[in-house]
Design a protein that fits this description.
The chain is an alpha/beta fold. It has one domain: 3-Layer(aba) Sandwich (Rossmann fold), CATH 3.40.50.12690. It contains 1 helix and 4 strands. A 4-stranded mixed β-sheet has the order 1-3-2-4, with no helix packed on it. It is globular. The mean pLDDT is 78.
C-alpha cells in the first residue's frame, strides 16, 4: 500500500498504481493506492480499514483490462 494524503478530506480515491501521486496537491482528498489490485480484491482489502466518512469515493481499478 502506498499512503497518500491521510489528513482528512471530502473525497477518497481508491485505486491501483495508476492513481499514485495523482492529486496529492489537494489537501481535501485522501488517496489509497494498492498497486496491482483488481476490482474483486478491493472490497476484501478495504473492508477492515478505517477510511473515514468521505462525501465522495472514486474507485479506479482494472483500467488495463478494459
Amino acid at each position: 500500500m502506498v499512503p497518500g494524503d491521510r489528513n482528512g478530506g471530502d473525497c477518497l480515491m481508491l485505486g491501483d498504481s495508476i492513481i499514485r501521486n495523482v492529486g496529492t496537491e489537494y489537501s481535501s482528498m485522501k488517496f489509497e493506492c494498492f498497486p496491482g489490485i483488481r476490482a474483486g480484491q478491493l472490497h476484501r482489502v478495504t473492508e477492515n480499514m478505517d477510511l473515514g466518512i468521505p462525501d465522495t469515493v472514486v474507485i479506479h481499478v482494472d483500467t488495463h483490462d478494459i
